[in-house]
Design goal:
Elements: H1 2-22, H2 25-32, E1 42-46, H3 53-69, E2 73-77, H4 84-92, E3 99-105, H5 107-112, E4 124-140, H6 148-157, E5 163-166, H7 172-184, E6 189-192, H8 196-204, E7 210-214, H9 215-222, E8 229-234, E9 260-268, H10 273-288, H11 290-298, E10 303-306, H12 308-324
Parallel strand pairs: 1-2, 1-3, 5-6, 5-7
Antiparallel strand pairs: 3-9, 4-7, 4-8, 4-9, 4-10
């Protein structure tokens, strides 16, 4: 009788172990390094408002990625404080693969390096880069300046009087305006807004005189019969083929290096490597999809996929840029 009871107990224990191994499969895989894939919807944090350049690109990519991720990717906009609100929530999220998000470079690294910041170089884990966009200088279509030289000369003649809208204090487009002003030798009045969409709306409504943004952000505003803006300069070492009549800043004797922004996917600190690998591979397949490429081109965005390792190097280079260049602009 005792032997039968012992055998029964052993059988129950074995069954329990087997059931335990089957239950919570994705959680075990996430910890063990085994293959992982999401089993429910995934939250994607965007630290800017709906309709912004980052939001538009994020929705374009995530809507297409469902085919390769296997689950719905749900965008949650968390705008405010130049991105800090959304990125702080992202960094504090549970690292289980069900919350990922977009960061903008160099804005993220600029905020990360600010005194008292609640973000640091360990707050997020790279997944992959999405797009890289070049900076441009824009004014209203009917503005009196037809060249960047004319704008600069006017700014020099009236120190501090010309106003430029930015996407936030020391955010990426503010840094672009500083690079232009410092290299061209003029003073201006920077007016921060809650993001690129609001910044460009202020320019379109005549609240400010000029803005620096990214080419993709202004693509729909500079083309067609109803164009509202015009580009006076490009932050690059060579002319943009789509803006072949627009000089680079370097051609005019101003800032002579590339400057722009990268938008990338990241996960909270502590997210397991197998989860990162899954998303990296899924988004790579998404970005290589011909239909996805065509949709991005139509939206004025150029896909620039970089894997997790290369994105990590890009983030580190942006930290260096912020430490050694941006820190001297303000």
């Amino acid at each position: 009788m005792k032997k039968k009871l012992l055998l029964a107990a052993a059988a129950i224990l074995s069954a329990g172990i087997l059931l335990g191994g089957c239950g919570g499969g994705s959680r075990s895989a996430a910890k063990s390094g085994a293959a992982w894939k999401p089993e429910k919807d995934v939250k994607v944090i965007v630290a800017y408002k709906a309709g912004s350049g980052t939001d538009t690109g994020a929705r374009l990519l995530t809507n297409s990625a469902k085919k390769y991720v296997g689950q719905t990717l749900v965008i949650e906009n968390k705008p405010g404080a130049d991105g800090k609100i959304g990125w702080t929530e992202l960094a504090k999220s549970k690292p289980d693969g069900y919350t990922i998000g977009f960061i903008n470079l160099p804005t993220y690294t600029t905020l990360e390096l600010q005194k008292g910041s609640n973000l640091d170089d360990k707050s997020i884990v790279p997944i992959c880069n999405h797009v890289t966009e070049t900076g441009v200088v824009v004014v209203k279509k009917d503005a009196k300046w037809n060249t960047l030289k004319e704008l600069v000369e006017d700014a020099k003649a009236h120190p501090g009087q010309l106003k430029a809208s930015t996407n936030g204090n020391q955010a990426s487009n503010h840094t672009a305006a500083q690079l232009l002003a410092k290299s061209a030798g003029f003073e201006y009045n920077a007016v921060p807004y809650g993001g690129t969409a609001d910044q460009l709306l202020a320019l379109r409504q005549g609240e400010v005189d000029f803005s620096c943004a990214k080419a993709g952000d202004v693509a729909k505003l500079i083309n067609g019969d109803n164009a509202e803006l015009k580009v006076l300069g490009v932050f690059d070492t060579k002319r943009d083929p789509s803006l072949k009549d627009v000089p680079t800043l370097g051609e005019l004797g101003y800032y002579d290096k590339w400057y722009g922004s990268a938008r990338a996917l990241v996960a909270p600190k502590g997210t397991p490597e197998n989860v990162i690998k899954f998303y990296d591979e899924a988004f790579k397949k998404t970005m290589e999809d011909p239909e996805v490429k065509a949709a991005h081109e139509k939206a004025g965005m150029s896909i620039d996929y970089k894997n997790a390792a290369d994105l990590g190097k890009l983030i580190e280079s942006q930290r260096d840029f912020c430490k050694n260049i941006v820190s001297k602009l303000y």
